[in-house]
Write a structure and sequence with these properties.
The chain is an all-alpha fold and 290 residues long. It has one domain. The radius of gyration is 22 Å and the shape is globular.
């Protein structure tokens, strides 16, 4: 279904910049803290279908054979104990993801970016500065979770942590999409990254000569971070959606029967362009004076 939503919107005459933005919001939230969607967002040349297909296959296998399938020794499944030892599929899952991302997915994204920029006679180097948000995001998560002084892993707070990061990652990627749609400068920073950097510092205080915080303090910091992320994210989403819907004269998640007939798309809205005005990255619309 992720591959047909755009086609359906264009066939019903309801395609707009809001639809493209909303699709990426939902996708980013569903994927939580996966890196490939971020680089696909930057390239705008590939789609996330391959990841969704792999996820569906994994769920089908888990449903048919049971979740214990992933805990079996690889050597018992395919042999060669001298190569796999006592490792299970679950043990190798993270290394498999990292290797496939670093040596398969990412190189193709970079190649597509370089090829497109050169074809359009644009400089290549500035594009890689757009990796700044994801680098800060990744290093902060790693520094916080894997710090020997952090209690999040020991106290099994990963569900709360991943839920919080889903809003941070969703805000980060959708700001990029909104800037793309409105032809605004690339958003190198979002305020939702600040508490993440703070959490990385909080989990590594002994490295700076200070005492480590208790598990209770760290837990309440993470809870406060989640509350902050919820308020910031939904306030921003409310402003952006209301601004677009108000300008286009449409209702969010509702198809007006008086709109264009199937197969027709309103001029200037199919690609997110707003005629006689410009929508800013914060969701407000600047109209041209006549």
């Amino acid at each position: 279904m992720d591959n047909v939503d755009g086609k359906q919107a264009r066939r019903t005459g309801t395609s707009s910049g809001l639809g493209e933005l909303f699709e990426y919001v939902v996708t980013s939230m569903a994927r939580l803290v996966r890196f490939p969607p971020y680089f696909r967002t930057l390239t705008r040349l590939t789609h996330g279908a391959e990841g969704l297909i792999i996820a569906c296959i994994i769920m089908i296998i888990s449903g048919y054979y049971g979740p214990k399938t992933w805990t079996y020794r690889i050597a018992d499944l395919i042999g060669h104990p001298e190569l796999f030892g006592d490792y299970s599929v679950r043990d190798l899952w993270v290394p498999i993801l990292l290797v496939s991302f670093l040596f398969v997915h990412l190189p193709f994204c970079v190649r597509n970016v370089i090829r497109t920029r050169r074809r359009n006679r644009l400089p290549v180097a500035p594009v890689f500065l757009e990796w700044t948000p994801i680098i800060v995001f990744t290093l902060s998560i790693g520094s916080w979770l894997y710090s020997p002084y952090s209690t999040l892993m020991k106290e099994n707070r990963l569900v709360l942590f991943c839920l919080t990061m889903s809003f941070v990652f969703g805000r980060m990627t959708t700001k990029i999409i909104l800037a793309h749609l409105t032809r605004q400068p690339f958003p190198y920073w979002t305020v939702m990254l600040a508490p993440l950097v703070g959490g990385a510092l909080l989990g590594n205080l002994p490295r700076f000569g200070m005492n480590a915080v208790s598990a209770t303090v760290e837990l309440w910091y993470l809870r406060a971070y989640l509350a902050f992320a919820l308020v910031v994210y939904f306030r921003w989403a409310f402003l952006v959606i209301n601004s677009i819907c108000g300008y286009l004269g449409i209702s969010c998640l509702t198809i007006n029967p008086d709109k264009a007939s199937p197969g027709q798309v309103k001029e200037g809205l199919s690609n997110g362009v707003i005629p006689d005005g410009k929508m800013l990255a914060n969701g407000t619309i600047s109209r041209k004076r006549k």
